[in-house]
């Protein structure tokens, strides 16, 4: 499911999980909210961003030689990775009424092994370092896709799903009950966490690739994903510029579903403005960030900075 670097790059305390640090420095209101909003379904917020893409397509044309296979989805993935490196509270999750800061960055993506109506679908989950560049994101994602693109091939997620699919209903309910409760206390087997697409920083779906407009996709109760992002199809619309002239603009809709328990509304709003600034100038993704911001709720537990 991707290169894992968590054990190499972080120190685990007594209150931490193997996939995240316990956030202790938090506003009292946010310490209480998870006890009242106990599920992600209770705490979902919805946000939409219309992304102009004419300049991004020009950027992709300029770099088609030095960054093969570059696409708009790669630019968005790199922008989200860069955003998390600067706005680390977005990489938090709530488990058993407690807030944790994830100790890695990964993005779950649903991909088809063949572009047919009955083509097999699988899930990949590439891991990225906080200082990853656009080139890193393209390379790592391409490697993951190549390793999972063959028809009939199984990755870890497929294998676990297939095995569980053979279980009788009573045993399936028992297994799922155990996994849900083990995950609450951080004791779920690591290999399940590694292959699970629901344990991720962001779940990203590009439904625009099949000609569908973006949707608000719900968050999952199983796992740790606090942000779901859906990309829609390309569309053209007429807009009025600052001088009052009408011009045609190509854009796509990005729709986000967010867990409001991990940070406040102002933090979300300012983060989305930052994401918009990054996407308006994708060339900043060609170089690493000047610095990686550590989550202020856990202190400097990262040892690679």
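Sequence proposed for the structure above (305 residues):
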């Amino acid at each position: 499911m991707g290169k894992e670097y968590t054990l190499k790059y972080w120190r685990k305390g007594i209150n931490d999980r193997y996939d995240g640090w316990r956030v202790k420095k938090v506003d009292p209101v946010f310490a209480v909210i998870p006890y009242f909003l106990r599920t992600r379904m209770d705490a979902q917020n919805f946000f939409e961003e219309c992304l102009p893409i004419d300049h991004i397509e020009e950027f992709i044309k300029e770099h088609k030689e030095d960054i093969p296979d570059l696409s708009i989805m790669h630019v968005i993935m790199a922008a989200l990775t860069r955003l998390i490196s600067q706005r680390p509270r977005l990489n938090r999750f709530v488990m058993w009424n407690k807030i944790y800061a994830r100790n890695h960055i990964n993005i779950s993506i649903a991909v088809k092994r063949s572009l047919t109506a009955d083509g097999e679908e699988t899930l990949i989950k590439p891991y990225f370092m906080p200082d990853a560049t656009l080139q890193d994101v393209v390379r790592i994602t391409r490697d993951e896709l190549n390793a999972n693109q063959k028809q009939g091939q199984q990755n870890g997620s497929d294998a676990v799903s297939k095995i569980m699919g053979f279980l009788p209903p009573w045993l399936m309910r028992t297994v799922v009950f155990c996994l849900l409760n083990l995950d609450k206390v951080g004791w779920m087997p690591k290999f399940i966490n590694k292959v699970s697409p629901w344990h991720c920083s962001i779940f990203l779906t590009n439904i625009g690739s099949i000609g569908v407009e973006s949707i608000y996709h719900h968050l999952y109760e199983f796992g740790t994903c606090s942000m779901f992002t859906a990309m829609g199809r390309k569309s053209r619309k007429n807009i009025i510029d600052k001088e009052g002239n009408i011009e045609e603009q190509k854009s796509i809709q990005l729709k986000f579903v967010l867990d409001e328990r991990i940070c406040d509304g102002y933090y979300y709003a300012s983060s989305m403005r930052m994401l918009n600034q990054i996407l308006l100038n994708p060339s900043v993704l060609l170089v690493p960030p000047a610095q990686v911001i550590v989550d202020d709720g856990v202190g400097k537990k990262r040892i690679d900075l």
